[in-house]
Write a structure and sequence with these properties.
This protein is α+β, with helices and mostly antiparallel strands and 183 residues long. The chain is 36% helix and 31% strand. The protein has a six-stranded mixed β-sheet with strand order 2-1-6-5-4-3.
Length: 183
């Protein structure tokens, strides 16, 4: 009887190990690939970010909807004290909501966002992205002289949720240093 119990426990342990190994292999394979559809959906997410932020669509709610429930937007000026927006309300306010007055009135109305040269790579959490953060002129005007043209790099983490791809995090690094960037 003791031999039967030991044999059963060994079989059970081997089965659990096999199932775990298969699950790990599947997850690792998923982390190595993104479908063309996923890549397009992530590109659309990045593009929607610019319009939702610049035009305060749906009172800023469209912007907040681009993030996961626990998502965050980080503005990193390189001073060791990044500004982090973690809540839905903070994200809505960043987009100028809910009344959009901040996005209508200069100088804030001169800020436009543009992402260029997007690189998307698979990752365990879904995907990661890197792109230039560019502030083009609006109506021939800039927010300020030091906020014009290419002003940093976006570092993104994307997660696929029930409603599609969303930002888990987006960090806007304003002062990247050549040689410090990791692709």
């Amino acid at each position: 009887m003791h031999h039967t119990i030991v044999t059963a426990l060994l079989r059970f342990s081997c089965t659990c190990l096999l199932v775990f190994s298969i699950q790990h292999a599947v997850l690792a394979q998923q982390a190595d690939t993104l479908s063309a559809e996923d890549m397009i959906a992530i590109q659309q997410l990045v593009n929607k970010f610019n319009f939702a932020l610049d035009y305060c669509t749906a009172g800023g709610e469209d912007f907040a909807d681009l993030f996961t429930i626990d998502g965050q937007y980080i503005i990193d000026m390189g001073d060791g004290m990044p500004s982090v927006r973690r809540t839905r309300e903070e994200l809505i306010n960043l987009a100028g909501g809910p009344d959009c007055e901040a996005r209508i009135t200069p100088p804030s109305s001169y800020i436009l966002h543009y992402s260029a040269s997007l690189i998307i790579e698979p990752a365990l959490e879904g995907a990661r992205g890197l792109s230039y953060a560019i502030y083009p002129a609006s109506k021939g005007q800039y927010f300020s002289d030091d906020i014009a043209g290419q002003v940093g790099i976006y570092h993104d983490v994307y997660s696929k949720v029930a409603k599609g791809w969303r930002f888990k995090s987006r960090r806007h690094e304003l002062n990247p240093v050549a040689g410090d960037l990791e692709l």
